[in-house]
Amino acid sequence: MLDTITSSPAETEAAGEQFGRGLRQGDLVLLAGDLGAGKTTFVRGVARGAGSSAHVASPTFQLVRVYAGPLQIAHVDLYRLEVGSELEDLGLEELLDQGAVLVEWGDRLETSGALLAIEHLGGDRRHLRLVRELPR
Ligand code: ADP
Ligand code: MG
């Protein structure tokens, strides 16, 4: 069970990479944490762990970004989402059929799925904790 303190973006990415290696098609992972906590940084590692060489950037102005690879990773960011509005258009089920889905600000969704919380501890220290495991 992931529960660790990282001291740099590289360490958070490495934790994401290890987590990404264990993902499968149909896995939904919700990411919780304030702006700048390291959610996107973690997803960068996850994509690499899932075998993707795609460039991972914040999808803040784009609801979903899809990274191709042995396991497709859909990277969703709900930060700017109006409640209820575009949520139905997200096509979550279809994305889950195609691979794994990671959702920044995912704690806003009322859905099952793993829940990873990233807490800012000050400076470059972050607490990464899997609050809820993948419901497999
Ligand atoms: P979020 O997606 O949660 O808003 P980002 O991953 O985009 O956060 O940004 C995290 C910022 O914090 C980056 O600028 C990164 O370099 C910095 N940072 C410093 N220390 C860490 C750490 N231990 N883990 C992750 N990011 C860190
Ligand atoms: Mg982000």
What does this entry look like structurally?
The protein has 136 residues and is an alpha/beta fold. It has helices at 9-21, 39-49, 92-98, and strands spanning 3-6, 28-32, 64-67, 72-77, 99-104, 114-120, 126-132. A hairpin with a 5-residue loop joins strand 6 and strand 7 (126-132). Helix 1 packs across helix 2 (39-49). The site of adenosine-5'-diphosphate (ADP) has 18 residues, from helix 1 and helix 2.
Instruction: Identify the strand order in the major beta sheet.
Output: 1-7-6-2-5-4-3
Q: State the end-to-end distance.
A: 14 Å
Mean pLDDT: 93
* Helix amount: 10-25%
Largest sheet: 7 strands, mixed
Radius of gyration, whole Å: 14 Å
Ligand catalogue: adenosine-5'-diphosphate, magnesium ion
Q: Structural class of the secondary structure composition?
A: alpha/beta
* pLDDT < 50 stretches: none
Number of beta strands: 7
| Broad shape | globular
Q: What are the secondary-structure elements, in order, as H or E?
A: EHEHEEHEEE
Name the beta content range: 25-35%
Individual helix count: 3
Strands, helices and their partners?
Elements lengths: L2 E4 L2 H13 L6 E5 L6 H11 L14 E4 L4 E6 L14 H7 E6 L9 E7 L5 E7 L4
Parallel strand pairs: 2-5, 2-6, 4-5
Antiparallel strand pairs: 1-7, 3-4, 6-7
Helix pairs in contact: 1-2
The structure holds adenosine-5'-diphosphate (ADP) and magnesium ion.
